[in-house]
Amino acid sequence: MAVYPILYGARQYEVGDELPDSEMKQTWLDAGTATLVEDEPEAPAPRAQMLAAQPGQIGISNSGNEDDLAGRIPKSIERATDPVKKPTRSRKK
């Protein structure tokens, strides 16, 4: 893996790029411009966590009109356990 940018064989290898196997491999390692990296599976990227409250308000709208929307739909067990949306209509074949 390149530690510094390396121009070799009319190609520019950037930091982190895998270098080709060639006669220059040992020279790059001796010079410190490349390092050997064992093939290890990469750890999955951490998922982001919400740091602020969800936008919207749960419940009935403040205006008193039942047709107005209040914001977000409250969480329920069905929504938490069934992430796949089911089709509302089935197509007959």
Give a written overview of the molecule:
The chain has 93 residues and is low in regular secondary structure. The chain contains 2 helices and 2 strands; from the N terminus they run ββαα. It has a two-stranded antiparallel sheet with strand order 1-2. Strand 1 and strand 2 form a beta hairpin. The longest helix has 7 residues. The protein is elongated and about 75 Å long. The mean pLDDT is 75.
SSE map:
Layout: E1 6-8, E2 11-13, H1 25-31, H2 77-81
Antiparallel strand pairs: 1-2
Which labels suit this protein?
13% helix; two-stranded antiparallel ribbon; 2 strands; 93 residues; single chain
Describe the global form: elongated
What about the largest sheet?
2 strands, antiparallel
Strand content: 5-15%
Which structural class do you get from the secondary structure elements? little secondary structure
Ends: how far apart?
Answer: 55 Å
Strand order of the largest sheet: 1-2
- Low-confidence parts: none
Helix content bin: 10-25%
CA radius of gyration is 28 Å
Total strand segments: 2
Mean model confidence by pLDDT: 75
| Helix and strand element order | EEHH
Q: Please give the count of helices.
A: 2
In quaternary terms, these chains amount to single chain
Short description:
The protein has 93 residues and is mostly loops. The chain has helices spanning 25-31, 77-81; strands spanning 6-8, 11-13. The longest helix is centred in the N-terminal third of the chain and has 7 residues, at 25-31.
